[in-house]
Amino acid sequence: MRTHVPAPVTAAPADASNLKPGTLVQVLPAARWKRVPARTAIVTGTIGSGRPGLFALLWFWTLGQPEFTQTLFTVTPDEVVVPLHTTLATLPQASYRVLAARHAAARGQAARLLAPLAEPIARAAH
Q1: What are the respective helix, strand and coil percentages of the chain, to the nearest 5?
Q2: Cut 0.90: pTM above it
Q3: What is the rounded distance in angstroms from the CA atom of residue 90 to the CA atom of residue 109?
Q4: Sign of CA dihedral 72, 47, 126, 122
Q5: What is the pLDDT along the chain (126 residues), one digit of tens a residue?
Q6: Which pairing describes strands 81-83 and 40-47: parallel, antiparallel, or unpaired?
Q7: pLDDT tens digit string along 36-45?
Q8: In this structure, are residues 74 and 47 in contact, taking their beta carbons and an 8 Å threshold?
Q9: Residue 117 CA: distances (Å) to CA of 16, 33, 42, 64, 83
Q10: Which of 19, 30, 61, 73 has the fewest C-beta atoms lying within 10 Å of its C-beta?
Q11: Mean pLDDT, the chain, as a whole number?
């Protein structure tokens, strides 16, 4: 049986300054956050009082429609989030279409939380 040993993280963790709405990020495994998926997500914004960007709100669009604790999570940017070089404009077309369709279908509170993504998604249309 083969086991995969994760490689060390060499990318710098994020801070609030590089987590703008529409930024694609990789969430790294964190033992204390077992419910947050370790996969690609999109930043919908940063939230928090006091210092800016205390938390990042991430949407794991590949997991489905936006829903708290299922596909929408708040995380501290400096702990588990690494910005990707891939952007919405360079995202594979099939992935972009899924993201755009799920964004357009969002209703209620989810739609309000995803509102900051409207402009970046429209700009990257392909």
Answers
A1: 30, 20, 50
A2: no
A3: 29
A4: positive
A5: 444 434 334 466 666 667 789 999 888 777 666 778 888 999 998 877 655 557 888 999 999 999 988 999 888 766 667 778 888 999 999 999 999 999 999 999 999 999 999 999 999 987
A6: unpaired
A7: 888 899 999 8
A8: yes
A9: 16, 25, 9, 16, 16
A10: 30
A11: 81
Instruction: Copy the structure tokens of residue 103.
Output: 């964004």
Q: Which two tokens stand for residue 59?
A: 């949407």
Residue with tokens 């205390």: 54
Residue 1 makes CB contacts below 8 A (sequence gap 6+) with none
Only one residue has tokens 């392909």, namely 126
Sorted by sequence, the CB contacts under 8 Å of residue 71 that are 6+ apart come out as: 59, 60, 61, 63, 64, 65
User: 99 — phi, psi (to 5°)?
Assistant: -60, -50
